[in-house]
Each structure stands twice: as C-alpha cells, then as structure tokens.
C-alpha cells in the first residue's frame, strides 16, 4: 500500500536547520505546518489506513521547488518538513521513529512549489 499527499512548499529558509529564527516564531510556523498537513492527510484518507504493528514504512519526499527559488538543498528540504512528517505519523497513529526516510527526490518546478509525500507500507 502506498499513501500519497501533496503538501504546500515549506519555506526552507525559515524552517531549515540553518535558520536563525527566534524559537517562538519557528514554533508558530511548525504548528501551522502540522495543522495544514493534518488536514490534507485526513482529506486524502490517511486516517483510515490500518498499519500493521510489524510493517516497515518508507517515506519519500518529492520536492518541487517554486519558480522563485534558485537553489534548494536536500538536507534543508528534509529538516523544513519535520513538522509535516510528525503530523503524518500522528494521523497514521504510529511512532514517527518507525518511518524510514528515503533519499529526497527533486521533482519538476511548479509555480507555488509543493512537496509530495509518499509512504510505502511494506
């Protein structure tokens, strides 16, 4: 079974590990990211998925940077979407430590940018 959801582009400049945002502002951004991710995952039916206790989960991030961004670092895409990964694990009712993150894949550029998340249940 493969679960898929398309998320809005996370501002990697503000949510990356290299960001120097004040912790309160960063927490506010992460909270908003989690809220949006939760709503989109539920809309896609992720909350109905039944994940066996012994199943392996592989998550792939396919990032489609916005046309306004000149360069994107894979590491920053992963860290900028940590709140989204936590929200997806919560929707699936699993510990996020069970999810094995695969190498991020660069997709085609799109106007507003997007991150396509695929979780394969093995």
- How much of the residues is beta strand, in percent? 15-25%
* Shape designation: globular
The CATH homologous superfamily? Holliday junction resolvase RusA
- Number of discrete domains: 1
CATH uppermost class? Alpha Beta
Detail the poorly predicted runs.
none
Helix percent reads: 25-40%
Task: Tally the helices.
Answer: 4
Number of strands: 5
- CATH names the topology as 60s Ribosomal Protein L30, Chain: A
User: Could you tell me the mean pLDDT?
Assistant: 92
Radius of gyration, whole Å: 14 Å
**C-alpha termini separation:** 7 Å
Strand count, sense and barrel status of the largest sheet are:
5 strands, mixed
H and E string: EHHEHHEEE
Identify the notable features of this structure and list them briefly.
single chain, 122 residues, alpha/beta, 60s Ribosomal Protein L30, Chain: A, 5-stranded mixed beta sheet, 4 helices, 5 strands, 35% helix, 23% strand, globular
Give a structural overview.
The protein is of the alpha/beta class and 122 residues long. The chain has one domain: Holliday junction resolvase RusA (60s Ribosomal Protein L30, Chain: A). The protein is built from four helices and five strands. Strands 1, 2, 3, 4 and 5 form a five-stranded mixed beta sheet that branches. The mean pLDDT is 92.
């Amino acid at each position: 079974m493969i679960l898929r959801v398309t998320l809005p582009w996370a501002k990697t400049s503000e949510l990356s590990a290299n960001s120097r945002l004040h912790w309160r502002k960063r927490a506010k951004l992460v909270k908003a990211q989690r809220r949006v991710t939760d709503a989109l995952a539920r809309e896609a039916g992720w909350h109905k998925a039944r994940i066996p206790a012994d199943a392996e989960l592989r998550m792939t991030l396919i990032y489609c940077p916005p046309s306004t961004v000149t360069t994107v670092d894979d590491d920053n895409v992963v860290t900028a979407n940590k709140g989204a990964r936590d929200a997806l694990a919560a929707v699936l009712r699993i510990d996020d430590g069970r999810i094995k993150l695969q190498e991020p894949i660069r997709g085609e550029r799109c106007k507003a940018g997007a991150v396509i998340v695929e979780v394969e249940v093995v």
